[in-house]
Amino acid sequence: xxxxxPIREVREHxxxxxxxxxxxxxxxxxxxxxxxxxxxxxxxxxxxxxxxDQLAQIRVLADLVADPALDGPLPVLLTADLNAAPxxxxxxPLRDGPLIDTWLAGHGDPAAARPARQQPDQRIDYVLARxxxxxxxxxxxxxxxxxxxxxARPPADHEAVVTDLVPG
Length: 168
Fold this sequence. Notes:
Blueprint: E1 7-14, E2 24-32, E3 35-43, H1 51-66, E4 76-81, H2 92-95, E5 100-101, H3 102-105, E6 125-130, E7 139-145, E8 161-166
Parallel strand pairs: 3-4
Antiparallel strand pairs: 1-2, 2-3, 4-6, 5-6, 7-8
């Protein structure tokens, strides 16, 4: 996680796992000029044989982002490699809540929406946002990849997904 503002606090949350090492989600509080910006970052299980772990991990992430203790003037963000296409059934716990897919809301290029080289046929990396308070809006100005496909390659197998949000 990178931030232009100081990261005030980081908490590690262990995710359920029966098939692999113990994955974690990091919940960070960024000292944003408008107020605390809460960000949850994680990567969930990707092996088909571990679908039960993947669903359990996604449910924990949905609960972390929904925590009312994170309410405030800014949206709460989930930045994650969810290893599932947007319409996958295992993402239902995230779709059923007030989370906004910032790639769609920011009119991200559908041709560039598959940033993982290991799974090039589907979008698996997300920046999801929920309003910081009931009735608030999440204003997504744009969504893009930091390095478009075919450009310079980062040291990972994913391109960086970037979204510009405007504080409400």
